[in-house]
Known about the structure:
Elements: H1 12-15, H2 20-25, H3 34-53, H4 57-115
Amino acid sequence: MNSDGTGWDGREGQRSGGSRSDTARSVKFPWGLAATLTVGGSLVALLVQTEWFGTSMANALRVHADAMRVRRMQYAEERAQKATLKLILPSTMIFAALLLIFLAPGMSSFIGVMGE
Length: 116
């Protein structure tokens, strides 16, 4: 545990004689978001696989960071597209209300003039 009691400092499992893969599996991620839990799970799987296959940790982490960056960008673009659709109805209602506010006095006087 860290000094504040959350998370994991990365050395406890190694000091107690456990393997790197067991240590990586026992990591507790303190973020608490559903999206980051899947990210954390894939990160643990990445660490276990790099140890198992003996590949470079730096390259694997670099590729993983790029994939996470792309995933975040796709999520942000998806949310932006949904936001425009959600704004169409309220903006239409506001436009109709403003149109009524600005045209009502003119229509009132126009009807008064035509009615005489």
